[in-house]
Specification:
By secondary structure, the chain is mostly beta strands. The chain is built from 3 helices and 15 strands. The chain has one domain (about 5-270). Helix content is about 10%, strand content about 50%. The chain has a 15-stranded mixed sheet that branches.
Amino acid sequence: MTAASGNARSTRFAASTGAVLLMLSVTGPVSADPAPQRFSATYRLTFLNLPVGEATLSVDQSGGRYGYDLKAGLRGLAGVFFDGSGTASASGERSRTGALTGTFRTESRYGGKPVQVSMSLSGGRAHGESVEPPPTPAPDRIPVAPQDKVGIVDPLTMLAIPLGAASLDPALCERRVPVFNGVARADLVLSRGKLATVEEGPYRGPALDCRVRWVPISGHRAQGTSVRRMAENDDIRVRFAPVPGGAVLLPLTIAMATGWGTAGIEATQWGPKTEPSGRASVKVHLPNAR
């Protein structure tokens, strides 16, 4: 294999892994119903069934406000090919219709260089975006229109599903989520819901399986290879599980087929952390789950 083909393969691998990181970074509380004051989850990132990284999500809620932090990074050979460490945080207030994010911030590395993005949101409208360094100008980059920043959620809330007192139902997967990350706007289209029962792992109980499509809207490069591959991918699967208290569903596992294998994310810790020698798991029972 030539150096050029090796670099191209590494770049494609990085794009696939980065996409899975993005899918992980969607979690957060969006329900006004009572929920645990503190929740944490640790995820293992894999590619071709090999461990390539880890991510940790922490959620804090106090009264009508919430805040959450995500830390993720690649390791092993993936860390050699791609500098994929990053953090993200968001805070806001809860309402009857969902979460109202006030601030969103992320720090990551791309091509060996730090990238910082921050923005404020008011009533689902993004404003005050700051991106350092700014995206590279390109003739095929789709401009972000003012309407693309209205009625959106940030990347730390985009895949959470409010449940409340309702029963777990496949129809919960039928939704389209508009997402803006401060640079680009896209829609996540969930469908094909199925109920499942998880019997092993840190969480045990009923779960909801959904298929996900990523639909780019603006801010991306129309001729970008990674954009095209993600938009054409119809094999992204997310398994949602209720947090203790059952008011909201968060991703338990994510699997994304690529041209080079399956990239995935799997929770290894769900809820209160246990001692290294502990074997505790979280069990959730929902009424009338069908």
